[in-house]
Amino acid sequence: MSEQASPQALAKLGSDLILEQALVDGRWVSGSGEPIAVEDPSEEARLGSVPSLSGDEVDAAIEAAARAFPDWAGRKGKVRGEILSRWADLVTAHEDGLAALISLENGKPWKEALGEVRYANSFITWFAGMAERLDGRAVESAKDEDLILAFREPVGPVAAITPWNFPAAMITRKVAAAFCAGCTVVLKPASATPFTALALGRLALEAGVPEGVFSVVTGANSEVGARLTGSKLIRKLSFTGSTEVGRQLAADCAPTLKRLSMELGGAAPLIVFEDADLDAAVEGAVAAKFRAAGQTCVCPNRLYVHQALQEAFLERLTARVAGLKVGKPFEEGVEIGPLISAKGRSEERRVGEECRSRRSPYH
Questions:
Q1: What's the rounded Cα separation, in Å, for the pair 125 and 82?
Q2: Alpha carbon distances (Å) from 80 to 133, 200, 204, 233
Q3: What's the pLDDT tens digit per position in 218-272?
Q4: Contact 16, 22 (CB under 8 A)
């Protein structure tokens, strides 16, 4: 499609991809617990629900990943790469619907969501090509009679825990890399945005990813997380989220000595020096700060501007921000959609009131 369709058409495209079951060992399961409601933040209305899997059901996904690992790891990298390529082709074929699905459950404007889907697919494409290029190396030895060879081997079943602010890209960046290496994956997506993960899981199955190689489990963070970190079968954890949660997950993984890859929250500033190109600085600030309505880890939460540029920068930034179009995700030209949750909206109002109460033009 590429060109933006009507709001009604986009909403249908996204809704058609909604799956209200978890993916465990190649099967779609409804779970035994109370379903978790998923909200459309734009309408503040229920979009659907996903299962709250029990500990035993999560364990079934982990055991399936362990069973599937030897066969998947033993396949030639070229074969895994071909499956990844088919997955990428399917994502491309469904990119408009996947973008609409992100807009529905996350609130991103459709054009921005489409950019995320293409960004997400670039990881699948990259690792599809890398799968047959995973070579080792020869290392010089101090002894003439010795030859040291280093080989690359998959670490084993991997658990991946992803955030809601990039419902597609954070998944493919982890999962495609694991598939490339020969690892199996149990994915726990954010409860606020599980439908994109499940849609990607369905496309992975269609692409030929074997049963058990990829499971998408939904449920309470604490319950699912405890099963993933506590399992001796899971050999690596990849997590993107807050530093606080990252510390806890690292501690929980310590008894089983899991390998860890973590991208944790920060507090990065944007700094404008005296010799900066003012127009470029303003555009950079807007692009960085207002992506996904300011809800990503790369959004600066404070600006440091050289005193000599302060007045001019503030004037241009204010004018530029005033021109941003705020609205519902499927409206043409919208640049800022809704915040993800009622909690986020409440916090934003609190911060705004606090800034206004200071009566300073620079806050």
A1: 10
A2: 12, 17, 12, 22
A3: 999 999 999 999 999 999 999 999 999 999 999 999 999 999 999 998 778 899 9
A4: no
Residue with tokens 């030895």, as numbered in its chain: 141
Q: What's the average model confidence in pLDDT over 206-228?
A: 96
CA separation for the pair 228, 336 (Å, rounded)? 35
Which pLDDT does position 1 carry in this prediction?
55
For a pLDDT cut of 90, what percent of the chain falls above it? Answer: 81
Helices (H) and strands (E) in the chain, counts: 12, 13
Domain presence at residue 30: yes
* Residues pairing with 217 in the sheet: none
Mean pLDDT of 88-108: 97
User: What mean pLDDT is reported for the chain?
Assistant: 93
* The CA-based dihedral angle spanning residues 281, 286, 288, 289, taken in that order and rounded to the nearest 10 degrees: 130
Burial letters 31-70, b for 16+ CB under 10 A, else e: bebeebebbbbbeeeebbebbbbbeebbbbbbbbbbbbbe
Q: Which amino acid is at 70?
A: P
Q: Specify the pairing of strand 45-50 against strand 36-40.
A: antiparallel
Q: Does residue 363 lie within any of the structural domains?
A: no
For the record, the structure tokens of 156 come out as: 């084993």
Burial 303-322 (b: 16+ CB within 10 A, else e): bebeeebeeebeebbeeeee
pLDDT value for 361:
56
Number of domains making up the chain: 2
Whose CA is closest to 41, among 345, 296, 289, 331? 345
Does residue 278 belong to any structural domain of this protein?
A: yes
State pLDDT tens for residues 57-80: 999 999 999 999 999 999 999 999
Torsion over CA: 199, 106, 239, 296 (sign): positive
CA–CA distance, 329 with 346 (Å, rounded to integer): 20
* Token pair belonging to 206: 């269609």
Q: Look at residues 84, 260, 253 and name the one whose alpha carbon lies nearest to residue 182.
A: 84
Task: Please list the active-site residues.
Answer: 263, 297
Same domain assignment for residues 331 and 252: no
Contact assessment for residue 187 and residue 170, using Cβ atoms and an 8 Å cutoff: no
